[in-house]
Every structure is written in structure tokens, then in C-alpha cells.
Design goal:
two-stranded antiparallel ribbon
């Protein structure tokens, strides 16, 4: 058979792949090629940490932040 069917799925363990839709056209032995999919809008952890490092240093003190948190908590109704 010279044709291929592409179906998305999820690798769930070293020997298990769950497909998003059934494959009814092929039976018997098959060859599986694994190609990871990067979802739109997702970035690797490395990219996120690079972004955080690129931000300018903040100017607020710990005391200022703690005071704002305390004021916010005191405004909550009990």
C-alpha cells in the first residue's frame, strides 16, 4: 500500500499511542512515525524564562508589596 493516513494522537507511555479518531482503512502491521506537535501559543519553558529575564527590574520594595497584599486581604468580606 503506497498511501499514508495521518491521524493525530497522544503518546501515553513508551509503547502506547491514543488516536483522536479511528482508522478503519488499514489493518495489520503499520509503521508509526512520531512527530511532536507544538500547539499555537505555547512556548517551551526555556522561552518563558528568557522572556522573564528580559523584563526590566521592578522598583517596588517587599514591604510595599506586602502592604498592598495586607490591604487587599483586609478588604475581603468574611
Amino acid at each position: 500500500m503506497d498511501r499514508a493516513i495521518i491521524v493525530r494522537g497522544r503518546l501515553n507511555g513508551p509503547q502506547r499511542i491514543d488516536l483522536e479518531e479511528p482508522v478503519k482503512e488499514i489493518t495489520g502491521e503499520v509503521e508509526v512515525v512520531i512527530h511532536p506537535i507544538e500547539r499555537a501559543g505555547t512556548k517551551s519553558r526555556e522561552d518563558i524564562f528568557e522572556f522573564l529575564r528580559s523584563l526590566p527590574t521592578g522598583t517596588r520594595s517587599k514591604e510595599d508589596i506586602d502592604q498592598q497584599i495586607a490591604e487587599e486581604r483586609s478588604s475581603w468580606s468574611r
